[in-house]
Amino acid sequence: METIKIMGTDDTPTVILDAENDIFEISGRSLPEDVTAFYDPILNWLDEYASSPNAKTAFNFKLVYFNTASSKLLLDILMKLEQMHEDGKDVVVKWFYPEDDEDMQEAGEEYADIVDVPFEQIGYTLN
Amino acid sequence: MDKKNVRGFLEFVYDFYKSMKAHEITLVYEGEITHQITKAFTSLTESNMAKEEESNSVQKKVFHVMVECLQNISKHADSFGSDDFLFAGRGIFMVSKGEDDYHVTTGNVIENSKIDELSRILDNINQLDKEGLKQLYKTQMREGRLSEKGGAGLGFIDIARKTGRKLEYHFLPIDEETHFFILTSTISRNG
């Protein structure tokens, strides 16, 4: 399956979706000019991946900022992962947040409340 | 400009300068709000705040509020009248910094027919407490559809949550069809 590798900019996140090497990650900042255009390929990729996923899928979110329009699309991604979980696949979401960023931690907690999928919160220190 | 007009203009410039100083305005813009403008203003304000060693949490809050305010204008400011594009996606945007607070203020033209709906949304947000806002955000994220322009109806809720204050807004009449909508958000500099 094709790999998605998008290098982050000051308004779009870094995205790596690499089934072969077991890397599923969105990191950085997200306030794209056109959120739908940015996230559509990612959602489509997940649809395709969900039909024959790896034995285990650990999806990392390591965002430092996202705007409200992006928050909706991030939920769409999480709902796809939730669907995989419901279909009996081994899926875990890893939500990384800077240790001093309560809002980002809370955002993770809120997503964990909304979607029914194994969800790990991991604080890290920014250097 | 003839001599008299030049003098009048110069006086206006000086008054404008004094007035900006008096209101502690650090950034003011009138015009179309594009994505480029949003990026430029947020990065300008970010570097100013970093220079002044504002705390991370204040910097983040100001950034959040600025982005949502700017996007509100770019997505919702009306082009009233059938062929009048002058006001679409346009508005005034201001950042001011006082001793204790940052203020982010936006103003844009809105059709009268939309005032009731907008007031209803804002008043609903204003009567909720922290927990209520959280629930509303979650509901809206789950059930709200992304509009054609990419709005998800989440911006105002986010501003209320990030500032921890009521949304302060006013409608000033322009003419029979439109009002000027002003929203001021306050972010405390003391965490």
Task: Describe this protein's structure.
The complex is a heterodimer of chains A (127) and B (191). Chain A is α/β, with parallel strands linked by helices and 127 residues long. Chain A has three helices and six strands; from the N terminus they run E-E-E-H-E-H-E-H-E. Chain A has helices at residues 35-51, 68-86, 102-114, and strands at 4-6, 14-18, 23-30, 56-66, 90-98, 119-124. Chain B has a five-stranded antiparallel beta sheet.
What is this structure, in a nutshell?
The complex is a heterodimer of chains A (127) and B (191). Chain A has 127 residues and is α/β, with parallel strands linked by helices.
Low-confidence stretches of chain B: none
Count of all domains of chain B? 1
The helical percent of chain A reads 25-40%
Structural class designation of chain A: alpha/beta
* Total beta strand runs of chain A: 6
What is the approximate shape of chain A? globular
Distance between the termini of chain B: 49 Å
Give a short account of the largest sheet of chain A.
6 strands, mixed
Oligomerization state: heterodimer
Give the low-confidence spans of chain A.
none
Order of helices and strands of chain B: HEHHEEHHHEE
The number of helical runs of chain B is 6
Would you spell out the secondary-structure blueprint of this structure?
The complex is a heterodimer of chains A (127) and B (191).
Chain A: E1 4-6, E2 14-18, E3 23-30, H1 35-51, E4 56-66, H2 68-86, E5 90-98, H3 102-114, E6 119-124
Parallel strand pairs in A: 3-4, 4-5, 5-6
Antiparallel strand pairs in A: 1-2, 2-3
Helix pairs in contact in A: 1-2
Chain B: H1 3-22, E1 25-32, H2 35-51, H3 56-76, E2 90-97, E3 101-111, H4 115-126, H5 130-143, H6 155-163, E4 168-173, E5 178-188
Antiparallel strand pairs in B: 1-2, 2-3, 3-5, 4-5
Helix pairs in contact in B: 2-3, 3-6, 5-6
